[in-house]
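Re: [help] complex structure
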Amino acid sequence: MQPITTYSLYFEKEIGDYSFPISPENLYQPLDYFLQLGGKRIRPLLTLMAAEMFGSPKENAIHASLAVELFHNFSLIHDDIMDKAPLRRGKQTVHLKWNDDIAILSGDVLLIKAYQALAKQEPRHIPALLDMFNRTAVEVCEGQQMDMDFESRKQVNIDEYIEMIRLKTSVLLGCALVFGAIVADASEKDRTLIYTFGQNLGIAFQIQDDILDLYGDPEKFGKQIGGDIISNKKTLLLLKALELSQNNSESNVLEMLLIEDHVLKIETAKSMFDTLGVLTYAREQMNFYQDMALSALKEISVSPEMKKTLVELSEYLFQREV
Amino acid sequence: MQPITTYSLYFEKEIGDYSFPISPENLYQPLDYFLQLGGKRIRPLLTLMAAEMFGSPKENAIHASLAVELFHNFSLIHDDIMDKAPLRRGKQTVHLKWNDDIAILSGDVLLIKAYQALAKQEPRHIPALLDMFNRTAVEVCEGQQMDMDFESRKQVNIDEYIEMIRLKTSVLLGCALVFGAIVADASEKDRTLIYTFGQNLGIAFQIQDDILDLYGDPEKFGKQIGGDIISNKKTLLLLKALELSQNNSESNVLEMLLIEDHVLKIETAKSMFDTLGVLTYAREQMNFYQDMALSALKEISVSPEMKKTLVELSEYLFQREV
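Output below.
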């Protein structure tokens, strides 16, 4: 296997060469714009790395990796409409720069383009790739629906929350890795293990994101600190705090949620979460899923040498200041 | 081949048995609702009929036919949002009965479910089915974008209009038929011919729809007569009228478009279109595409006996009072 940057440079070149038709302009220009916004491209790198780990050159998995990235961008474009998000990666979202109709239809065609990229893989792999992709894509939509449902629900328990982030974000990491495994003709057992690795990595990563949102270094986090708590978003931290405070009459988490001053609200939340042990709990959960991920990786029937880049990538993902 | 009703009853039973998961409710209930609204189910019947025409039992093409119907319903749910349509088949549209976000996400998952149905066909057929489906699905989105673009454009020529209806509605008829042909292992040549049949049938059918909107029998048409002209929709009739009136200073079509009284506007449009020969022109165009469709069907290398149901179906489609 090669260092992360090799995969990264290769993928950036390939997605840079990927082009949409010129017309209808209102359908394809938003997609050119959105794909150029970049992002970490973690998912397609997972596909390429998994392919090489299982013994196939990364070039053999390029269309599958593009499919994953196109799908991810489709889901962002549509999620941004639903979330009424003004910005994505610091730039205007498609529905704001154009309009909702264009964001709906451009998103639709991007989803289809993802399938079209997948269909360029070798025909003998297509049925397996398609099954994995369909199942994952359905789950991502289910996760997004659960996320929206949670906003208006009074009570959400932690199992439901984990299930939501598993569907909304983690299964796609598993799928990305399985794509590489399918292309490299890995065994069923290894496909299951690499999927477990990706899924648990994804859950751990999302929990880290919940932690960083409140406790991250503003310089390194790249987003506004405290955004989740300001909007009373039901993250793992808040849900655990609510659960614990039911039995602790002195720390009223519900009252904290009503504070209007942002700075005061963030400080109050932090001190409340510290008292309740919520930060420690979240870190333990994160480590739990990380460990599950790494032990699945360990079981895969290739040499540790071949697993190095994936281990490095997971370390890179959890390097951010907590 | 069997009579139309055999296919129709078979498909209604199959789609009746098709079910979505129960949860998340807000994702799947709108789809249960929408699919139960019914419709003519022309597209899936085309798949089943084509399969049998080329020598495969209709049962072998059931998943492909479901894929076509699910895709068609996906496109209707999203189009209804963009068109701000309150009603579909006489009932509330999804975005109105629920909301835009739910209509977007339910539509997304329905598109994926269409791919999932397709993936249930025999693995050896999947690459060809997937290619056809991807190409068609992209084109349908392009057609919808062109249709939206036309609304705000001052000038649209007739070639552009035909291209728009070809993409937005006709290619899916071609695709539906090719699905049947692929499942029955028809030759490349026959696949091209059946596609040509479907595509031209679709264009002719859409032109008939334009004609019926103004000249149809209200009892038989099932929609409000004159809806297109009331909303100044750029149909083949209006575009031809605008083209012809450029050289005819006496009939000012542009002035007619400003009439506010609906009854007066419809009457004025009709008399203007008669004077300009627009109705005759549209009928000629419809016949032209119908003839192209039927001559492609004639060339297909199966006995005329085997083509009977498809001929009957096209006759049924053009039976409506013009």
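Chain A touches chain B at residues 21, 24, 26-27, 78, 81-82, 100-101, 104-105, 107-109, 111-113, 115-116, 119, 123, 126-127, 130-131, 133-135, 137-138, 141-142, 144-146, 148-149 (CB under 8 Å).
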